Every structure is written in structure tokens, then in C-alpha cells.
Amino acid sequence: MTGWPLAEDAPNTADLAKCVHCGLCVNSCPTYAITGLEVESPRGRIHLARAVAEERIPLTETVQEHWELCLQCRACEAVCPSGVPYGQIMEKARAQLQAAPPSKSWGRTFRRLVLRQVIGRTRVLATLLAPVRFFARSPLRKLLRASGLLRFMGPIGLLEAQLGRPGRPFRPNNKHEEGDVALFTGCVMGELFGDVHRSTVRVLERSGTHVFAPRNQTCCGALSAHDGDLEEARRLARLNISAFEASSAKTILVNAAGCGAAMKEYGDLLEGDSKFAERAQAIAAKVLDFSEYLVGRTLPVGRLPAKVTYQDACHLAHAQGISTEPRTLLGAIEDCELVETDGADLCCGAAGIYSLLQPAMSAELRQRKALEFAKHKPDLIVTANPGCQMQYEAAIREAGIEARVLHLAEFLDEAQATSTRSP
Ligand code: SF4
Ligand code: SF4
How far apart are CA 308 and CA 336, in angstroms? Predict the structure, then answer.
């Protein structure tokens, strides 16, 4: 017997049993750091999952709230000596919430609708984000900021603070193009962070790698998976697998930490799908993060006189185990002073759409980062995930800090271009 309402996507009992309650993970957990509550720690959340699985407690709204406050940052998984696959457990626990009362709440229904019908549909997303890009560079934005009205506009005010100055979109090629290294363009990433993709391409070209963006690729599915909509995450994964299989790519390069982590785990996501299981493993094995690919290659000299802090993206550091590679790339830039802040690997509170769903916890984590930035006064804040970039934009805006937020690719691109221009 089991207390899970969706048996086919229930957390694996053997995975849950791996937790020996040692507590070595709790001090890495951002929600535990803020609340000090066992139920807001990884150990507490796993304990609740076991109790539900064994039908010792029902899947109440209170249990659901403890899981929903989890950022799914996987800092706990990275330090767990027992190898508890916390990310997978929480995705499957969240999947249960779609079938648990009050599964028909407007909030969940609306969220699922947006993720399925907007984020997961490239054309719809492109159409809806076009006016956002226009607004970001319009006088209306300046007027709204000057009026102070944004402070009273709740999530819209937060989104405005998070919005940088998006350039042109960067979308997959419509014409058929061949090559060894393919770029994954993503959903929001391609629409609002086209400049990051263009920087990525330039940096790779300077290192001797031609990169192309195969057609028919789509959102990686990470946002849906984190929300517990594994059906939609699998749909998107299948589309991407087919798109990359149809290309000649031997390597799939990803410059968004959350997407890279999700794609490296396509094999797990589709393990029960007889048609796609092996194909998913094969595609996942080709996925590399931008910094992972670049770190062993010969790069042109870069120079950027600036004080720089690197902030780990959780799904790069904790889910993919990549934290030294970005720092190595940054450290090779001449005249760049790299400063480490406390909690650089602690979640910034962006976590996909978490900042909209859990604004209070997200704001606490954002403010912690802002305090560190105020202390160390970096000129540049560098990270490797679009959601983190948006959260840092909001952090410095709220705290009145003078700094620029860049993706690692943008930083390297600027440093290489500056170096070329230097006498
Ligand atoms: S998840 Fe891992 S680190 Fe945390 S209490 Fe369980 S066994 Fe210990
Ligand atoms: S994923 Fe992050 S927020 Fe969630 S329990 Fe683990 S450390 Fe805490």
C-alpha cells in the first residue's frame, strides 16, 4: 500500500530509504537557514515523504506547503553522503500534488496552463514576450520607475525589477545546418537573453568551435518538471530528443544551468518510455555546459579591469557538479579581480518561477545576496543561468547597488573584445 495518489509517478521507495537522517544536508539548505525549522529542511521533507508513502500521514495541504517552499536547488543532494537523489524525489513528490486536494486550485491550474500553453509553445512565448522586450527599452519603463508605482504592483513590480535590457531574440535556425556542436537555445533564454547566446557563439568561434542551433528544439522541460508536471516535461524532452537526433551534433552545448541539468537527466525522465529510453540516454550523454566545454580549450587572451564576483547557479554547482570551471575561466582574464562572497553557492531565490510563487522566501534570499554585494562592491556580478541573472538585477536595483550583471559568456566575450581593442 502507498499513500501516493499518482502511483506511476510516485517517489521511489528505495530512494526514500537511502536517507539515514544524518542531518549533514540541513546546513546547506537555504529554507532551513532562513526558517530554522526541521520541516523546511531536506531531511524533514524526506521524512514527510516517507510518512506519506507509508500512509502514516495523509497528503495534507500543510505537507504540500513544506514541499512547495523547497527551491529544488539540490544543495542538499550535493552534500548527502548516502546519495539520496533529492531532486528526483521532490519532482515526483510535486507530481503528486497535481492529484492531491486541492488539486483544482486556481493557482495550480493557472500555473500549469501557463507552463503548458505559453512556456512549452515556442511561437506563443515569442509572441507574448515581444511586447515585454519593447517595454524594457521604452520611455514608459522609465516613467513607471520614476513614478514609484512599481512598488505597489506586486509581482509585476518584481518582474520589472528582474528584467534587464533584453536584446534581439536568438532562435533556432529554420534552415538545415550541419556541425559537430549544437547550441540549445531554450524558451525564455532565447527570447529575453539573445545577447547571451550571441556572446556564447562569438566566444566559441574564437576558440575554434563552430556552433549551430538545430531547428525544432524547444523548452527543456525543467520548469514543468520542477512544478511536478512530468507529463509535459516528457513531451518537451521527446521533442528535443527528436530535434537533436535529426542534426549532426555530437555535442549539445547548454549555457543555462537549469536547462543543462534537466537535459543531462533526460534518461531518468524517460526511463519508463520504451521508445525513448535509450535515445534519451544517448542525447543526455552529449550535453555539456558552456564552461565545461570551454575550460580545456585554447582561448584568446582576455582582459577586463574590474572587480568581479561569481555566483554559482544551483543547477550548475549542485546538480551538475560544476563550480571550478567558471572560476577557472574568470581567473584567466587579465586585470580581473575575482572576489568570493559568503554564500556564493547558496540559492539566490530565483529557482525558475519560485520568486513569483514564494515571494517572501525569494526576497529573503535575494536580500542576503544584496548584502554581500554591498559589502564587497563588485563592478560585475557573473553567473550562468538566466533566472539568476534576473534575480541579481532585482537585488541590485532594490538595494541601490551600482554593478552590472552578466552571464559568464557575456563576460568572456567582453573581455576578449576589450583585449583585442587594447594597444
Ligand atoms: S538526505 Fe542525505 S544528508 Fe540529508 S539527512 Fe538524509 S542521508 Fe543525511
Ligand atoms: S533542494 Fe534546496 S531548498 Fe530544497 S531541501 Fe534541498 S537544499 Fe533545501
Answer: 7
Instruction: Tell me the domains of the chain and their CATH numbers.
Output: 7-97 (1.10.1060.10), 106-162 (no CATH), 181-294 (no CATH), 303-421 (3.40.50)
Taking CA atoms, 131 is separated from 78, 137, 213, 263, 335, in Å, by 39, 10, 24, 29, 39
Q: What are phi and psi of 392, to 5 degrees?
A: -70, -30
| CB 74 near ligand 1, within 6 Å | no
Atom of ligand 1 nearest to the CA of 83: 2
| Mean pLDDT estimate for the chain | 94
82 within ligand 1 shell (Cβ under 6 A): yes
The answer to whether 408 and 382 have CB atoms below 8 angstroms apart is yes
Q: Is 45 in the pocket of ligand 2 (CB under 6 A)?
A: yes
Kindly report, residue by residue over 24-79, the tens digit of the pLDDT.
999 999 999 999 999 999 999 999 999 999 999 999 999 999 999 999 999 999 99
Backbone angles phi, psi at 331, to 5 degrees: -65, -20
Report the separation in Å between the CA atom of 116 and the middle of ligand 1, taken as the mean of its atom positions: 33
